[in-house]
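Hey, can you fold this one?
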Amino acid sequence: MSTVLFVVTAARTWTLSDGTAHPTGFWADELLIPYRLLTEAGHDVAFATPGGVAPVADAASRGDGDAEAIAEITGLASPLVLADVDPAVFDAVYYPGGHGPMQDLAQDGDSAALIAATAAAGRPLAAVCHGLAALLPARTVAGEPIVAGRRITGFSDEEERLGGLADRAPFLLESALRELGADVEVAAAWNDHTVVDGLLITGQNPQSSESAAVALIAALA
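Sure. Predicted structure:
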């Protein structure tokens, strides 16, 4: 079976345009559901964060039993240092969301290099919701945005507005991806929507966590 690297935000706050430090982290379902499905399918999962910092779940995302489920995941509390990761060791890479990636992974050079290496090697790359912020700094060997010309989805500007943070967001994810030349396909807010473009798998929102994971499992097969 395969080994999948989950690259998880280390951010605990998202700095909004008015200077407010908005509490955040990773979104629980976007990590727990793919982790469960992948491990049930027989795959191994490893974790990495910027600086090897133990990630935290956004308190707004935790449901009953989530804290216990997160605590039981082997390796999550002591992740690999992202800068030390060898892309060749892993068969696929997955980015869960939460607003945390908008703070750190959206401008992380080590993450961008990992994404570029994964894509260049023809290995599956998946991201859900705000996890797609990690794609923003990634470039091909020719220096083009990794998302240019690709069919993808991600947390929509409308969903950001409905969530109440759009007016204070330093940038809106959907708009930023479009500006880089991505063909962004979004469904109605909070609907399950996953887009598969070759080995690039993207889910729009937390509701898309399962369908994105199922697509990743299919790609690994």
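The chain has one domain: 3-220. Let me know if you want another pass with a different chain boundary.
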